[in-house]
Amino acid sequence: MRPSASQCAPEKRLPAPGHARAATLTSLPTRHCSNAQSVRFDLTDLRLCLLVADAGSITGGAERAHLTLASASARIRGLEETLGVALFVRHRQGVIPSPAGRALLAHARRVLAQIEQMRGELGEYAAGLKGNVRIASNTVAMSEFLPDLLGAFLANHPNVEISLREQTSPAVVQAVLEGAADVGVVSDWIELTGLETVPFRQDRLVVVTPPGHALSTRQALDFIDVLDEEFIGLPEQSALAEHLDGHAKQAGRPLRYRLRLRDFDSVCRAVAAGAALAIVPLNAARRCATLGIGIVPLCDPWALRTLVLCVRERDALPVHARQLLDHLQAPGSDTGHPSDTPDTHETHETHETRETRDPHETHGVRDAKVSGNPSIAIGTNKNGTT
Question: What Pfam families does the record tag this protein with (predicted)?
Fold first, then answer.
């Protein structure tokens, strides 16, 4: 039996715990108006929930929020009691958001993003308020292109902090779509429906070999040509390692790793010592060319990738995120190698030249010298990207 209008209790406004500045959200609608209430959420509580979800534990979230564990636990418990639902599911390794917690996190991200946008647009830096831009990036962009660019941006924006997270391209897209990241850097092979994108950099994957290795004299290699070899690689959870392992599994011959190291320079040094082969970005291989390693381009279509910047809606970004996006797109911010672009004569090649050139060049490989200081450049691939 439905309650009459007279049975519907007026909405009660609950006090915000501990913090004067609060945002108001209305809990999920219910059919029984006696249970409906307007709940005030403290902004510190919203940030804490996001930090706990990111850290995977209340202890980690408390540290990032600069709160004691007891204070953080009390805040989350107070929210759960107010809402009447569990926001996090506790387990032996930490916590994960419950379905209700995921709904709260989605709202919290939007609320805090709007507040961040307001702060920038109203110029409240005089009050000591700082902006934070969240970037999710694949391995190559994170290690080869972003460090210099982000360092220069921070030098010119002292009131901005950047949270940078390495993820696979699919995970980056998901983070941007869900509002967990402001800006993503991904390969253009991934599905990008629902996002605004702009080209960022070119990424060519190459095989690096020990000095004098039999494969070092090859002009180019197909990925399948090296699957019987042993490799030095990045950590298993890195985005590039997952990318390569995925293609190896598709070929039915998983990669065999002798050693995993934390960065490309370390990988190339191990290769130079004669341990095994490796697959790294062209920029990283060039940087280590003085070690005497062989550098041979992979000619698989997926080995030549255009990295793109992606956002959910540029105009809705906080002002600091828009400024960073402009900085990453600025022509003067290009840190790529000069020969990463085709020579003028390649740009104007004739139809006859295309018909007679080496078949490997349809994947964008030309002049691949494999010893000393190699000259490897990226041309135009089958689908027209450069």
Answer: HTH_1, LysR_substrate
